[in-house]
Amino acid sequence: MKKYVNGKLVDMSADEIKARQEEEKEEQALEPAKKLAMLRLERNFLLGQSDWVVIKEREEGGSVSNFADWKEYRQKLRDITNTYKSLKDVKWPTAPSE
To answer: 20 to 30 A Cα–Cα from 25, which one of 5, 65, 93, 94?
Structure first.
């Protein structure tokens, strides 16, 4: 392996190579957690977009005719991390019509 020192490409020492390989292992170990974090961010955004339904239902006491559908949709969003671990593979539930 090589690295740049003062603009020149030089060979890395055995210790530097070992340290770099350890860093790469650590980065790979964090990758699943990063993917899950991105999935949760998107899920939380979608939950936030449907908060109005819950607020309206609570404030107006049953005025949302398809509240059960919204409740199911929101539960599916909350459960999405039980099934999927990255944004790449996720199949998002469809929000009910307003």
So the answer is: 5
Tokens of 91: 């199949």
pLDDT of residue 46: 97
Query: Helix, strand, or coil here: 4?
Result: strand
Measured torsion, CA atoms of residues 32, 33, 34, 35, in degrees rounded to the nearest 10: 50
pLDDT in tens, 7-36: 999 999 999 999 999 988 888 877 888 999
Residue (of 40, 96, 89) closest to 67 by Cα position: 96
End-to-end Cα distance, the chain? 58
Amino acid 53 reads V
The predicted model gives 68-88 an average pLDDT of 94
Q: How many residues does the chain have?
A: 98
CB 90 within 8 A of CB 38: no
- The beta-strand segments (E) located in 2-98 are 2-5, 8-11
